[in-house]
């Protein structure tokens, strides 16, 4: 995984380097948790044992020096702890515990097997509630704590901690298997894993600063991990491609709609990775219909093309969205298609589409911010200033993110200024 | 006539109950199981794990749907049970999906905690 290449070339180099170092540490954390879980299937016990090993390391490494193979050292301390826990569990239950619970490992080998794919599959097991799968991955595979994950999902720390512990107890008590299913069952098990990793890409860090919250870089990391573990799954590479394109765009600073962003501010290395992954995905699905994530990646690639051609290919985007909404229509993708239609076919086409979406998803008009914003933009382009102002105001009401609110307020102010000038011109 | 006695009670952790109450409860259950065994009426008994470990499945829509959590629909009532012994939840889900009842209702999969062997409570492996 090219974690070190995630640092942005323009500015924020320190942040980039720190993020890269953190990702490298997370890569090892996930491998250790996965391997420690592989025998017992008990991720709670594995994390406790590894937490104990990190504590020991903090105490002993400053004195004894950092061992030659830090991962092997951590693993060995954690496994001893795990063994002690097993023994005490045996005493408690006075029941024989499976000795096969301990994975075999030659103690001299630093190179223990990478079981993170199995861990990802376990976190997104169909018997685990959907809304906790992504947080579970962020914790077990990447080592984020409940405060950081809570901040990313706008959930109080205590609530997030409780839900994570419940899910892990459930994995242990219901005996959700760690071993991934055979190749015949794998296709059924993959969609929820892809969904959960997709969920990482939608994470919006917010709330108090409890340290770094998971962001797009982590979503990209998981998507690349998944794609490289599966190697031949077109959709996994599609998701990785989409993640790379999303991560290539600035996540901080004022909100600017994608089509108005300066392509010079996009990260060229990440865009290249996005294109490579998309080509890989296309090769793998050659002969078959493109899947949802490949189409989503192709949409991002079309936007990224503006960096080369100087123009957004609106007609191509309309075709891609039509395909996406045939394969996997969601409220979000249908509204996004309407936004594209406003450029490709004009504001009236966009408004007709939005009316159809509103019929299909009752209540969406009152709840879904992007629908209000796309409608406002289309109404403004169609010359309905009153309707547009009303829709911008609704979009503003529905936005929690301050960067987006600032943008919506600016649009509303601009519209009002324009109207004032028009009215004055009339007088 | 075979009867199934269904136990319903509030879920409480060992800490909430306290050691004394827990020990009293265990002794009472041990005595009850032994009494039933002696009377020759005990066919088998299970104490189940708490509902956080429960999974519900249905194939009503022709497709297997799996849900995190216990059965919670007041229109449907408990109609029967099977006790199976398999390696893990995936195996249990596989069998539950084949239960005819899954086609017209819901099957809740609850792991066991202890069960009786000859009237003596024995922890599940």
From TrEMBL, chain A:
This is Sigma factor. Residues 29-92 form the RNA polymerase sigma-70 region domain. It comes from the Bacteria. Signal peptide: none annotated. Residues 189-281 form the DUF6596 domain. Pfam families: DUF6596 (PF20239), Sigma70_r2 (PF04542).
From TrEMBL, chain B:
InterPro entries: Dimeric_a/b-barrel, YCII. Residues 1-111 form the YCII-related domain. It holds the Pfam family YCII. PANTHER family: BLL7171 PROTEIN, BLL7171 PROTEIN-RELATED. Belongs to the YciI family. This is YciI family protein.
